[in-house]
Each structure stands twice: as structure tokens, then as C-alpha cells.
Amino acid sequence: MLGTHLAQCSRSLASSSSARAAPLHTSAVLHAVSARNRRSQQTLKANIQRREEIQRQAQQNRPHVVLGHRAGDEAKWQKSDLVQVLVTETEIQGAELPGSDIRTGMLRLPQYFNYGVGAAERETLFDVLPELTVQSQVKVHPDARVVEGMPPPETVVLTRIQGEAALEELYKTGLFARLVDLRNANARGVAYENRKRIVAAFSEPENPNDTGRPEVQAALATYKIRNIWEHLSRCKRDIFSRRSLRRAVHERAKILRYLKRVDEDRYDRVLERLGLERSAVEGELVV
């Protein structure tokens, strides 16, 4: 009797403990943990996508770190002082051909002289030397020589000799003018001319060749960056030029940071003259 009662009590206790442990079954716990992990992963993925979208929009609104302006705002570059200073291959080839016209006696000088021919050299080559050559040709002409015991040459003869020598010298000067035209230079010659123009345009009037001035260095760096960018648009696999472009962009940013630290007003003025925006040269630059 007592044994039977104890057996019934044991079975009732076992059934009640099983009923209480049912909600804590292992599969239910794993299911809850898995659902929580899925929600965490979905939240993390949504946050990453939202962050990437914000970065993408910020990158779209940010000016190009190489060109210095936003997409579609090419007018900012075209209106800059730097563009007005530069001479392009199209302008050089479109200029009037230099030369001379014997019938009218007119001499056409090149619109763009080759590098190394400045104002002083032009005066010497096209004003002083032709006149001296004409005078020397008149002196050595047989009909213009003064012979002892003979009457001096007539004025009409001297005028004729001088006119013939002047026409010959005009023809030779016209040929020489074609030689010193900038259209005969290679790409390095055109770049030299443009660099010379940049230095003169961005220097102070009292010091027209101040190559150490930050504005001049920033303008030269911008010109170099533009040239490399145009080259890379044609030769996209030129790894060396891409590396040079990256160095030039960071070099320009370094120069402009120094100028901003020294004088922020000059910094703003040079950005306007170069067609650049602040956000294109400040912060992290990824080329």
C-alpha cells in the first residue's frame, strides 16, 4: 500500500517538473537567439547602406579634386584668370602667318613668338639688325664706293642701292620671322611660354618674375595638373602619369594650405583666379 502511494507521488512530481521545463527547451532558446541575430544583422546592413549613400551623395556634391570645380561647372574654369593667360595650340595655329610683302614693304611679325624671344630680342632682331645690314650692304656695293680722285656716287644711285638692299633684307627678315614663330615649337616650347606667362601674371608688379610667390607656385601646379589630366584622358593606362598627378594635387594643396595660414584673403583671391573651390583643395584628397 505504502509502495503504491510512493510510486504515484513520484510520477506526479516527474510530470509536473516536465511541464515546467517545457518552455525552456533548447530549440526555443536557439530560435530566439537566431531571430535576435537576424535583426541585428539587418540593422547593421541598413546602417552601412545608409552611410554609403550619404558618402556617395557627399562625393557627388563635392568638387572634383583634380579639376577643382563641380561637374557641369566648366564655366568657372573658363572664366578664371589662369585660362586667360594661357595660349593653346588652336590659338597658335589659328594666328596669322608671319612673313613679308615685297610689293607693299610690310613685315608681319608672329603673334606668338617662340620661347626665348622677348621684347628686347624682338627689337634687336627686327629693328636694329636689319637697318645695320642695309647700311653695311650700301657701303660695300661697288657703285657706292668712294674712290680717291673720283666724284662721289650720285644720290640717285645711293637711293637705288639702299632700296634694293632694304627689299632684300625685308625678304630675309620675313623668312626669319617664320622661324621664330611659336607654331614651330614642340609641346615643351609651348609649355615654356605658358609658364613664363603664368609667372608674369601671378607675380606682383614690382617683382614680375617672383617664382617663389605662393600664388605663382599654385598657378604653375594647376597648369601642370591640367596638362597631366588631359594626357590621362587620352592614355588611361599611363600609371606613371597617374602617380605624377597624385603628387601634383597634394603639392598644390600643401602650397594653398601654407597661403591660407599666412593670409586667408590672398588664399581666397588665388582660388578665384585659378577657378578652384575650397572643398576641392581642403580636407582629405582622394585622387
Task: Describe the protein's architecture and organization.
This protein has 287 residues and is mainly alpha-helical. 68% of the residues lie in helices and 2% in strands. It contains twelve helices and two strands. The chain has helices at 2-21, 26-61, 74-78, 81-85, 89-94, 119-140, 155-179, 187-202, 214-234, 239-262, 264-274, 278-281, and strands at residues 99-101, 106-108. Strand 1 and strand 2 (106-108) form a beta hairpin. Helix 8 (187-202) packs antiparallel against helix 9 and helix 10 runs antiparallel to helix 11. The radius of gyration is 41 Å and the shape is rod-shaped. It starts with a helix and ends in a 6-residue tail after the last helix. The mean pLDDT is 85.
Topology pattern, helix = H, strand = E: HHHHHEEHHHHHHH
Overall 3D shape = rod-shaped
- Helix count, per DSSP? 12
Unreliable segments of 5+ consecutive residues: none
Widest β-sheet, arrangement of strands: 1-2
Task: Write the SSE topology.
Elements: H1 2-21, H2 26-61, H3 74-78, H4 81-85, H5 89-94, E1 99-101, E2 106-108, H6 119-140, H7 155-179, H8 187-202, H9 214-234, H10 239-262, H11 264-274, H12 278-281
Antiparallel strand pairs: 1-2
Helix pairs in contact: 6-7, 8-9, 9-10, 9-11, 10-11
Task: Provide a compact summary of the structure.
Helices cover 68% and strands 2% of the residues.
Characteristics:
287 residues; mainly alpha; 12 helices; 68% helix
